[in-house]
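Throughout this chapter, every protein is written as a compact record of paired, labelled lines. An example of such a record is reproduced below:
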Amino acid sequence: MLSGLPQAASLLLVTLLLLGHEAVAQPAPGLQDWCKLSSNINSTSCSALTPCPTRDGYWSEPARCSIPGYPLTYPVNYDSCKVCAGMAGVATRELRDLDGTVYGSVRFFRTYGNQLLVTATLNGDAGGSQWYWEYPNRATDANGVPYKGAVLNLADPAQPLTDRPQYADPVFVSGRYLCVTWVVDLAHVCDAATSRYEYSAISNDNFYCKCYDSTRPCPPQDLSQLAVLQASVRLNLTQFAAPSSAGCGGQAAPPAYKIVGTLGSNPPQFVGDQV
């Protein structure tokens, strides 16, 4: 009976070694390409080669993250031939907080089908943490109502730009994001003074523009013929501490949130910009 113990022990050792090998986490899909970009290469996520996934695949999922250019090599996934005026028609702005710190960028571009695409991308954080855009958003107001995690506002430059959530969260799948894209029908833009965009899988009544006052009509506006648009973007970010080779890391303690967006004027404040 004793003669069988060494063989059993060796089998156990092999099994443990195999299990240990399988437990080594692999970098998240898209991470290694994302880490080659100068905006991200020194980030904590890249240093750790974290397995922490993002819903946009670190800028690699075209359905959630459209980045124009040519040729179609990472991170470019939207052919600039489909963009009005090509790359000359892409307006890029920085995403900053009120202190002026840059967290990423936002691209505005129009298609020949009267669509406006607005893509916000977040950079890597080299400070031992990572800021993500989350859906649904965790931050709440004083009454416990969650803020909109992302807000896009559009208007004719001749009109004032409201801070109401005209076009809010552009995705419906929960998770962490480092890139999101809005797609707006410029021929039917919800008038921020009277309505907000609210997608429904059941009906596209009034082109998804939901009236603030249900007793009055709120027809959408046609901005497709304007040479210039006024636009602003705001994202409410959540900080996650210490992404590592083992996982995403937990939410920062105490919870940390940051509003970033397009900025203008001095001192900085969130305002509209022409694109």
